[in-house]
Structures are given as structure tokens and as C-alpha cells.
């Protein structure tokens, strides 16, 4: 069998939108096959994964809460990916951001540092620390690439393991709650150091608003600013970008700082919103899932918002399926891999006319 | 430390280096043809789970190894379909393979968590293996170690001494020229990708059959990524892969011994050393060499035939 590709001269708008939707449908079918192979009912699984979470108020809120870090990270990644820079260490930047912000949350535990000025400044400062921490961590692979030419793919990924181990050490060591009966977790933050909930007694926290604001800002930057143009140009026509005098080094640093900063922001939103303390593991692999979100959203902020909700659905569905159908958590990860493959395959359809030649 | 102890430590270094050698040499061949497959980690971990499952069910280490290889080939064919057949970005395709592989390995390995079997047997040649200090190091390893060395030698010979190897390198350096010369760019790339997958699968099977004779989720612990870094570290030259892998193996073993001896450094920090060492190695290499001068010129670029 041979596959011949003929580049399309004009990319059709309809296909651009139909492709990810089609990919989603195909991936659901393939996921169903895997579930059938595991000896479970694909129909029931579809119900649990994609329908049930949409029917109840608490699960809809949970959806928004889970989508929040995914969207934040993926918007950041889109800056890198569009410029053909491969930051795959968002998981690490998420952790360091969460850790940096959490340090302040721990330091101000039980009213400490709040006597003179009150506690209003703590949460903004935590968020800022999260951004700075994530950006600084993201700048390491960027600097290594810009000045030494070291592969940012490998260095950013290696730093994920380092961040995970670092967090594990700190939570079991210096940052552990001294009165916590040796449980590996920090003290819980004061209320002033938590993201406020949007409704009394519910799960939806203010991080969701932050994510929406970031999407809007990113959409504006890509569409209207010189910087957004620079990013797109470097990715799509690097030679032209060089002639235009855009500095690749500067762009590498800025793109990684944005991407790391947003991952760090996601990290601190998760810690200060969902969890309220530090634990040995604070991310459920959000940094990697966000890569799928970025591609499913076709590297565009609005698309990413929708894609983030779709992937959040698979997380929640996966948790329910674990209890209701005894489907292992790995099913979710495997499905996410299938989904990314389908999305990438669909991308080829928008770019090329594909001719299959059997036996040629 | 006595000489006998030293021999034992060196043997563990060899064991730690072997999966890295096998996975890296496969990726090296793929990269020489211009294909950057970031799915090594995913193929390796599926190789580990499938390899263990097959060996446990059949009772044969060889069948386990073959099953690992087959799993790697199947997964890499998915990558080949995306990245070569459909000319999709290789980085993204490789990442999708790793994500899929990590999930699949968990699904397939789940029934085997907690099961144990005998580690792959080691070679024992009368007299030779009994030579003091070096006998077991040279003549008493498991079969995978010898296979790894043979693989490296074969790849070196193939790439540098055969016409087919020259063709492969030409395609990796400039696919348009190679295409214009009538060389089968995509076929060669598919084959080298499948070879890379077979090696990654075998490397994974080694982990669950010989390195630690059981399956546990996530047991590759980033070794696939380290293998990718090793290819860069080796400047795409086969024998340097062995050197690099031994250095990394050494770092890993040293770190384990330091943890066992509890020298007062936190265990997590010691566990982080192989990853930090990888970063440092990439840095040193980038300072030393002219920026990626040794890399195949068309590495990672999708190829679409134009007439």
C-alpha cells in the first residue's frame, strides 16, 4: 500500500473545523474498540465518559475546574509550538510554579505575616510567585537552547523528573506540616491564601476566571500584536523571519517564559484553588495532557478553550469509570494518546489531498 | 573495596547500561535516516509490559524478548504511518506515541502487577567465567548484553561499510536530493523506524525480564528519553552510544549505592542525578561541538515528494 500526498493550495475553512471534530469521533470509536477488548461495554463506557458528566451541576463544575489548568498550560504551549519550539516540560513548570506560590501560603499559615497589612496581598503575591517560578523554570531549557544549541525537547523533559523529585523531597522534608502526624503534606493554607470560590459551598473557584481572561488576552496577542505576528512568522517561515530582523534568541526566551509562566500560574491555581496545601504530587499529568489540548485546539486560544473542556471530560469520565466500571485509570491515558494521534492524522487531511494506492 | 566487589559493581553498571544501549542504537539508525521518533519511552514501556506478560505466560525469556520486539514494531508502525505516511510533524507524532504507550502498558500489564519470575539466566562458560576479577564481567553476563554489543557492531558496519547504509545516511542528510536520485526515501525511513521500534521494545523487555524480573507501571522511568539524549551525546556514532550508556549506567549505579549507604544526601536528590547528568551532558556536548554539526541534516523534517 502506498500513500501519496498532494499539498492543498488553499486550506478550506470547513475542513479546518471539521478535522478536529472528525478526529474526536474516530478516537471515540477506537477507544470503544479498546474497551471492548478489555471485555467491557463500549456503550456504557461512552455514557460514563462523555454523557454523564454533562448532566449534573457538580460534575459540570468539576469539568470547569479540571479544564482550568489544562487551558492555561495549553495556551502557553501554543506560543512555543507555533514558533516551532518544543517545550514538553510544562509538567515541571507547573510543579515549580505551584511550589513557589505555596511557599508563601505556608509562610503565612495561621495568621503569620498578616498583623500589619492584613491578608489581602497574599493571594496576588502567591499567583505572581507561581508565574515567576514557572517562567524561571521554563527559561532553563530556553537559555540552554538559545546560547548552547542544546535540544529543548530533552532538557525540558528531564527537568520534569527533577521537579517531581524536588517537590517530593520538600513535602516530605522541610515543608512538611510539623503537627501533621508525619503525613507527607504541608500545612493547609489560610482562607486568605486560597482562591475564592465563585459560589458558596461549591467547587468552582476563581482560577476559572483567570483561565478565561488568559484565553482572551492570548487571542488578542495572536491576532493583533506584532509579537503574535513574530511568533507565527518564525514558525511558518523562519527564513522570512530572519530577513525581517526578528531575533530568534529573544523569541525563544520570551516564548518559553510565557509558556512556563502560564504553566506555573496553572500550578499555583491548582494548589491554591483545588488542593489548599502541598502534597507529594500536585499534578495529574496536566502538563502532558495539555500538549493534546494544544493540538486538538489547533494551537488557537479559542480552540484550546473547547479542547480543554473535552479533555477535562475524559479525566472526570475516567474517574467515574474507574469506580462504576472498574476501568483502570490507564484507559484514560491510552485514550488520550489515541485522540492525539487522530488529531494529528486529521491535520494531514487539511493539508494534503491523500491518495491511497493499493498494491502500487 | 575488594576486586570482587568491584567486579560486581561493574556488572551492575553493564546491566544498567544495556537497555540504554539497545534503545539508543535503534533510535540512532532511525535518526540517521532523518526520522526523530520521540516515542522511544512509550515503545520501551509497552515492550516491558508485553515482554513480561509473554514471558510469564509462556515461561520463556526468549518468547518474552520476541514479544517485546513485536510490540515495539507495532507501535513504531503507527508512528511511521503518521510521521512518514502522512508527513505530520515528527515531534508531535512521537509524543502521541509516548502518551499512548504509557497508557497501553498500564492496561496490558495490570494483570501481572506483583508477579515475579526468574531473571534471565546469565552465561556460564566453564573455566572462562571463573577467571578471577574479570571472568564474570566478560563471560558471565546475560544474553541481552551480548546481543546489545552485537547490535552496535552490526549497526556500525551497516551504516559505514554497506551501500544500503550509505543510502540511509544520504536520505537522512538531504531527502530531496536522495529522492531526485531515485532513492526510496519513505521506504527506507519506514524500515529504519521499525528497526528503532524493535530495539526500543527489546530494551523495554530487558528491563522487565533481566534488570528487575517483574513488571511495575512506569518502570522505564524516563530511560527512553535518556536514550534519545544518548544519541545526541554520541554525535550519531554507534560506538559512542556504548561509551555514553556506560557513563549513565555508572551514574545510576553510583546513585543507588549512595542511597543504600545513606550518606546524608536526600534520596530524591540522588534519584535526580541521572536526569541532571543528562542535561549537563547535553550542555557540555553543545559547548564542545559546533552546534549540532554531527546531526543528520534532514533530521525531523517531514518529506513530501515533489516531482
Describe the structure.
- The complex is a heterodimer of chains A (360) and B (307).
- In chain A, helix 1 runs antiparallel to helix 13 and helix 12 runs antiparallel to helix 13.
- Chain A contains 13 helices and two strands; from the N terminus they run E-H-H-H-H-H-H-H-H-H-H-H-H-H-E.
- Chain A folds into two domains: 72 residues, no CATH class; 251 residues, no CATH class.
- The model of chain A has no long low-confidence stretch (mean pLDDT 90).
- Chain A has 360 residues and is mostly helical.
- Chain B has one domain: ABC transporter involved in vitamin B12 uptake, BtuC (Orthogonal Bundle), CATH 1.10.3470.
- Chain B is globular.
- Chains A and B meet through strand 1, helix 6, helix 11 and helix 13 of A and helix 3, helix 4, helix 10 and helix 12 of B.
Detail the topology: elements first, then pairings.
The complex is a heterodimer of chains A (360) and B (307).
Chain A: E1 2-7, H1 13-37, H2 42-51, H3 57-82, H4 90-107, H5 122-148, H6 152-172, H7 207-224, H8 226-236, H9 238-243, H10 248-275, H11 286-296, H12 301-324, H13 330-351, E2 352-357
Antiparallel strand pairs in A: 1-2
Helix pairs in contact in A: 1-2, 1-13, 2-12, 3-7, 3-8, 3-10, 3-11, 3-12, 4-5, 4-6, 4-10, 4-11, 5-6, 5-10, 7-8, 7-12, 11-12, 11-13, 12-13
Chain B: H1 3-32, H2 40-58, H3 61-85, H4 90-109, H5 135-139, H6 143-161, H7 163-173, H8 175-180, H9 185-211, H10 223-233, H11 238-260, H12 267-288
Amino acid at each position: 500500500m502506498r500513500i501519496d500526498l498532494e499539498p492543498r493550495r488553499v486550506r478550506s475553512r470547513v475542513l479546518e473545523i471539521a478535522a478536529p471534530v472528525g478526529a474526536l469521533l474516530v478516537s471515540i470509536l477506537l477507544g470503544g474498540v479498546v474497551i471492548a477488548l478489555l471485555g467491557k461495554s463500549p456503550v456504557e463506557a461512552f455514557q460514563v465518559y462523555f454523557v454523564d458528566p454533562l448532566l449534573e451541576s457538580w460534575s459540570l463544575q468539576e469539568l470547569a475546574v479540571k479544564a482550568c489548568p489544562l487551558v492555561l498550560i495549553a495556551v502557553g504551549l501554543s506560543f512555543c509550538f507555533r514558533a516551532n519550539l518544543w517545550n514538553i516540560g510544562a509538567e515541571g513548570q507547573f510543579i515549580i510554579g505551584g511550589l513557589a506560590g505555596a511557599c508563601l501560603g505556608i509562610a503565612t499559615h495561621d495568621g503569620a505575616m498578616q498583623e500589619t497589612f492584613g491578608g489581602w496581598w497574599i493571594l496576588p503575591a502567591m499567583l505572581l510567585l507561581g508565574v515567576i517560578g514557572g517562567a524561571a523554570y521554563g527559561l532553563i531549557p530556553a537559555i540552554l537552547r538559545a546560547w548552547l544549541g542544546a535540544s529543548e525537547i530533552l532538557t525540558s523533559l528531564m527537568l520534569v523528573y527533577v521537579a517531581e523529585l524536588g517537590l517530593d523531597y520538600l513535602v516530605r522534608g522541610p515543608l512538611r506540616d510539623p503537627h501533621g502526624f508525619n503525613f507527607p503534606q504541608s500545612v493547609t493554607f489560610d482562607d486568605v491564601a486560597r482562591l475564592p470560590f465563585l459560589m458558596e459551598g461549591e467547587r468552582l473557584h476563581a482560577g476559572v476566571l483567570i483561565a478565561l481572561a488568559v484565553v482572551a488576552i492570548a487571542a488578542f496577542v495572536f491576532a493583533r500584536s506584532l509579537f503574535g505576528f513574530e511568533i507565527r512568522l518564525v514558525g511558518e517561515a523562519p527564513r522570512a523571519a530572519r530577513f525581517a530582523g526578528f531575533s530568534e534568541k529573544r523569541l525563544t526566551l520570551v516564548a518559553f517564559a510565557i509558556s512556563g509562566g502560564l504553566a506555573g500560574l496553572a500550578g499555583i491555581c491548582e494548589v491554591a484553588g483545588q488542593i489548599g496545601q502541598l502534597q507529594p504530587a500536585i499534578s495529574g499529568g496536566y502538563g502532558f495532557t495539555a500538549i493534546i489540548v494544544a493540538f486538538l485546539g489547533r494551537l488557537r486560544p479559542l480552540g484550546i478553550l473547547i479542547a480543554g473542556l473535552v479533555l477535562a471530560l475524559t479525566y472526570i469520565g475516567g474517574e467515574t469509570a474507574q469506580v462504576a466500571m472498574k476501568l483502570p485509570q490507564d484507559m484514560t491515558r491510552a485514550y488520550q494518546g489515541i485522540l492525539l494521534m487522530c488529531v494529528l492524522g486529521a491535520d494531514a487531511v487539511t493539508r494534503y489531498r491523500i491518495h491511497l494506492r493499493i498494491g502500487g | 573495596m575488594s576486586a570482587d566487589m568491584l567486579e560486581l559493581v561493574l556488572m551492575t553498571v553493564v546491566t544498567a547500561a544495556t537497555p540504554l544501549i539497545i534503545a539508543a542504537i535503534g533510535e540512532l539508525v532511525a535518526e540517521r535516516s532523518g526520522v526523530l521518533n520521540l516515542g522511544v519511552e512509550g515503545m520501551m514501556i509497552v515492550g516491558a509490559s508485553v515482554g513480561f506478560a509473554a514471558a510469564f505466560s509462556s515461561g520463556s525469556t526468549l518468547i518474552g524478548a520476541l514479544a517485546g520486539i513485536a510490540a515495539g514494531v507495532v507501535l513504531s508502525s503507527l508512528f511511521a504511518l503518521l510521521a512518514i505516511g502522512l508527513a505530520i510533524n515528527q515531534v508531535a507524532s512521537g509524543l502521541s506515541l509516548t502518551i499512548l504507550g504509557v497508557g497501553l502498558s498500564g492496561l496490558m500489564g495490570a494483570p501481572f502487577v506483583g508477579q515475579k519470575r526468574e531473571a534471565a539466566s546469565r552465561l556460564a562458560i566453564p573455566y572462562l567465567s571463573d577467571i578471577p576479577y574479570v571472568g564474570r564481567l566478560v563471560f558471565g553476563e546475560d544474553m541481552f548484553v551480548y546481543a546489545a554489543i552485537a547490535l552496535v557492531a552490526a549497526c556500525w558496519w551497516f551504516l559505514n561499510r554497506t551501500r544500503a547504509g550509505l543510502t540511509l545516511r544520504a536520505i537522512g542528510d538531504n531527502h530531496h536530493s536522495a529522492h531526485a536520485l531515485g532513492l526510496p526515501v519513505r521506504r527506507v525511513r519506514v524500515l529504519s523506524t521499525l528497526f528503532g521500534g524493535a530495539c526500543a521494545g527489546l530494551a523495554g523487555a530487558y528491563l522487565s525480564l533481566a534488570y528487575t524480573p517483574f513488571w511495575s507501571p512506569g518502570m522505564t522511568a524516563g530511560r527512553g528519553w535518556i536514550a534519545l539524549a544518548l544519541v545526541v551525546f554520541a554525535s550519531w556514532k554507534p560506538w559512542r552510544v556504548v561509551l555514553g550508556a556506560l557513563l549513565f549506567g555508572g551514574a545510576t549505579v553510583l546513585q543507588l549505592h549512595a542511597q543504600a549507604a545513606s550518606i546524608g544526601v536526600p534520596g530524591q536528590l540522588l534519584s535526580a542525578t541521572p536526569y541532571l547528568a543528562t542535561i549537563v551532558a547535553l550542555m557540555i556536548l553543545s559547548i564542545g561541538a559546533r552546534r549540532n554539526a554531527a546531526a543528520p541534516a534532514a533530521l525531523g523534517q517531514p518529506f513530501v515528494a515533489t516531482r
